[in-house]
Amino acid sequence: MSIMVKKFRFLVATLMLIIATALQAQVTTSSMSGSVTDNEGAVIGATVVATHVPSGTTYGTVTNIDGRYNFNGMRVGGPYTVEVTYIGYGKNTTEGITLQLGETYSHNVVLTEEAFTLDELVVSTRKTKFTTEKTGASTNVNNTQILRMPTINRSIQDIARLSPYANGMSFSGGDGRSTNFTIDGANFNNNFGLSTSLPGGGNPISLDAIEEVQVVIAPFDVRQTNFIGGGVNAITKSGTNIFKGSAYTYFNNQNMRGNKIGDVDFGDRNKESRTIYS
């Protein structure tokens, strides 16, 4: 009997370990939700299709008994085109939707019945305002902003400073070494506390490979754990149907170094130059 109890305890412990591993907090995608209604209330069974235009990725579902729909695990960014159709109603099409990392985009649609005449088809729609559901103080920096940001050493610290809570990799006055940093859901933390450089003690991933960065401050979100004060979630770029690339260069020579202190002249500077291509 005792052997059976030991085996049972071992199986329970193994199962709990597997569950804990599966529940590792990761924020690498976006979501979209909303409702479809008409002038009488919820529209049940309406078809909702969201298309990621650059890659052609599509997400489809139908509305439930309350007229609501939900997409999880969507690609970050955009633009997206959302089409809502239902028998007897006109097609509702909304273009140019952009999703932010780790947040839910709310897109509500009001359908109007099709009105036919002998000459034309009249379709009336109404576009909803952009809304997102926040789970705490957060700052999202998309790829367009990253490209426009001036940067000295091409590090995440140069991007994270857009958050009003940031001071380097320190957030809300906390020690930067306690900041949780993830790239595509993988931890790049300073587990031993020996360096203030994040992620991974430096810049293991080129800034050109980053699609979006999210800075969060104590969010009430079960997907985000393992840090005190602040967290940085980054995702890398994914493929599209367009062939493109990026490059940068740094140049430095002796003319970028002074040779005077006050009235003291130290003479000619030694010639030197350094150029970085990437």
Enter the CATH topology name of the largest domain: Immunoglobulin-like
Rg value: 26 Å
Percent of residues in helices: 10-25%
Quaternary structure type: single chain
Question: Low-confidence segments, ≥5 residues, pLDDT <50?
Answer: 19-24, 127-131
CATH architecture of the largest domain: Sandwich
Number of helices: 3
Q: Could you give me the name of the CATH homologous superfamily of the largest domain?
A: Carboxypeptidase-like, regulatory domain
Overall geometry: elongated
Q: Helix and strand succession?
A: HEEEEEEEEEEEEEHHEEEEEEEEEE
How would a crystallographer describe the biggest sheet? 6 strands, mixed
* Number of distinct beta strands: 23
Question: In terms of topology, how is this protein built?
Answer:
Layout: H1 2-22, E1 30-38, E2 41-42, E3 47-52, E4 57-62, E5 68-74, E6 77-85, E7 92-99, E8 104-106, E9 109-110, E10 115-116, E11 121-122, E12 131-133, E13 137-141, H2 143-148, H3 156-160, E14 166-167, E15 170-171, E16 180-183, E17 186-187, E18 210-217, E19 230-236, E20 249-253, E21 260-261, E22 264-265, E23 273-277
Parallel strand pairs: 1-8, 1-9, 16-19
Antiparallel strand pairs: 1-2, 1-5, 3-4, 3-6, 6-7, 8-12, 10-11, 13-18, 14-15, 16-17, 18-19, 20-23, 21-22
